[in-house]
Amino acid sequence: MALLAEQRIESTSLARGSVGDLGPGSVAVIIGRYVATPPNCPDWRKPANQNFQNSPSSNFGCATAANLALMVEDPADLLRGRRLGPGDAAGLIHGIRRYRGNLVIPPTAQVTQTSVESAE
Hints:
Largest sheet: none
Helix content: 10-25%
Mean pLDDT: 81
Distance between the termini: 80 Å
Radius of gyration: 29 Å
Strand content: under 5%
Number of helices: 3
Low-confidence stretches: none
């Protein structure tokens, strides 16, 4: 808002989720931020021994969740997926035509030779 004030542009902060009544010539700028925070692994709140209830340990899935949080490019994708872009069917159509026309090239057999030497 300080940047807008420097440019002598009137601005108002609104409550989350409401845009308010925008008059003519008004613009609403909505800023959102998503963060994927990995869990603290290992989690030993639940003892690993004497599990008579046969319930999952407190570490169950912790490494998977931590890795996902560290790998995700856009954390908003964890809430909702991205829209699919246009598909490129040209390559798929080419493959189907080769298959139907019996033009599929079978893979060639690879022959490898290995030698085992004994250390005597």
